Amino acid sequence: MSEPPLSTEESATGSVPESETHCPYCALQCGTRLRGARAAEVTVRPADFPVNRGRLCQKGWTAPQVLSAADRLTRPLVRRPDGRLAEASWDVALDRVAEGLRGIRDRHGPDGVAVFGGGGLTNEKAYLLGKFARVALGTSQIDYNGRFCMSSAAAAGNAAFGLDRGLPFPVTDLREARTVLLAGANVAETMPPLMQHLDQAELIVMDPRRTATAQRAALHLQPAPGTDLALALGLLHIAAVEGLLDREYVHERTHGFDDALRRAMAWWPERVETLTGVPASDQRRAVRMLAGAQNAYVLTGRGVEQHSTGTDTVAGFINLALALGLPGRTGSGYGCLTGQGNGQGGREHGQKADQLPGYRSIADPSARAHVAGVWGVAPDRLPGPGRSAYELLDALGGEDGPRGLLVFGSNPVVSAPRSAHLADRLASLDLLVVADFVPSETARMADVVLPVTQWAEEEGTLTNLEGRVLRRRSLLSPPPGVRSDLQVLRDLAVRLGEPACRYPTDPREVFDELRAASRGGRADYSGISYQRLDAGESLHWPCPDAPGGHRGTPRLFLDRFAHPDGRARFTAVDHQGPAEEIGPAYPLYATTGRVLAHYQSGAQTRRVAELAGAVPEPFVEVHPDTAVRSGVADGSLARISSARGSMTARVRVDPTMRLDTVFAPFHFPGDGRANLFTHPALDPRSGMPEFKVCAVRLDPLPGATP
Hints:
The chain is α/β, with parallel strands linked by helices. It is 29% helix and 17% strand. The strands form eight sheets. The chain has a seven-stranded mixed β-sheet with strand order 5-4-18-17-16-6-7, covered by helices on one side. The protein has a six-stranded mixed β-sheet with strand order 23-25-24-29-22-26.
């Protein structure tokens, strides 16, 4: 049970307003208490919420500073004939957008317009954005930046378990773990409060870098980038050869084991060592640690997901977990560590190219009929599946691609792969509209910029990595001239000829409609209400609307998996290697990721003095010997180049790095964008780009400025 909310009203004695809400950053969604009457005065305290238990990371402690950012957007901006963005009234800005959208649809049809959402939007915003795209615009061209985060794990989880929820158990269950394998996850930097739940466990950390998480591990497996699946196959091979499989579990609760094992048997430990660089002895030790623990978990993160073979790679680790009998067992399991604040809820309610609310397939006739009924339109009015995120962005301005784009809660100029190319695609559009609260790099390119509310100025719900639905509560009124995303969508829909009543602006009303639309779906929210959440109930989906009130489902799969026969599925997978290998021209692997002080594209954290001071500029980590061979020195400037582009960064020499690998964070704009060199190869099932590995070279760059 979470505690009831604190009052957000000033009392008769004149006390300062307070509000109980959640951190605006990662999917852990730490509980916080805000206090203050004005943006510049807001302070934050950690709540004794289950996932953070009175702790916050550096980003959480400094989150209120974004509320008073010096360049906060408070007036709509419209690009003038001379190319400059200038302040305009809301009517002028919205009329410009509506006129542009109508013109594009008249010339190019409904799919001439596209929508790009974000994994930080509340459930209500994500839901209404999907409805707006498919009904008001009639376009199939909608996706969101969560495609770059969770899509591989989602595809693998659905295939294996029949259901995709990041953690199918509460975070607090991890406190009873004795061994935890963290595959491609650096939670000590990306989710620091989570580490307290792992204090009692022996950690096996699989990462090409010796990260802050790896430094706390009992065993660090350091494979070459792009070889994660080979390592997963080798671990399954060892479990079989050493008799460590849970054969009773495999027989009673799964299908497809023999085919999966047949592939793994070709990956004996010494062969895996030759490819990955991970000693065979460490492989054997890892499997013995997992199999010998009374309570064990396998948790995956972006490191194994952000590949062109990401779905297969996650499936390889799910296979290992199933073979050891972990998923659907009290005290053990498999889970994916969702990244963005509402990365879970954001993909459940309709802003994903192939999904309708409730995690329904947009290609399913019964799902289309149900949602169309809630929306009051004919099922055939709903478009079919559209392009996935990178495919959508890559098609912008092309012969058959969208000519107009609306962006809500995302900054693809920094966050998308091959970002220089995508910036060119954005520049080619007839109309680019961005709704944001700071002038992000994408907003600076827009024809119209719409100022919208921030986290502490709005009501709503989010769904954290464990499937718990949470209440976001406002502390402050937004600055004059700022509107909510819900208001923006309603005002645009009305200008496009839609009835205002179809697009409510009250978050409670939107959530009630979301409940109806999700009813009977895999992500069923119909039994959840603001009233129950505000009363302090802890509700995990699925939570159907049942007589007496369903208590939610904190632990999935204890009795059966979500496939019709109740059994989990092994997937027969094999290692394929990355889309691009190193060679004479580009002799190093590059991998990208996050650092403690920053989040996503950095649009928020780079505006916080303490965080910007902690990591003020882009950097590249490189082994000392590799630095010497490349002609660069610690503290100097270097150019990291691939066949697609290059970035400038400050060299950090690190003796724990692999000799063949360099690392760069992706939080910085301009010439410091790591995504200038990343590879856009896509996973064929999830649409995930290959952020985590590409071939580069490192060159000295004296006198340059990042």
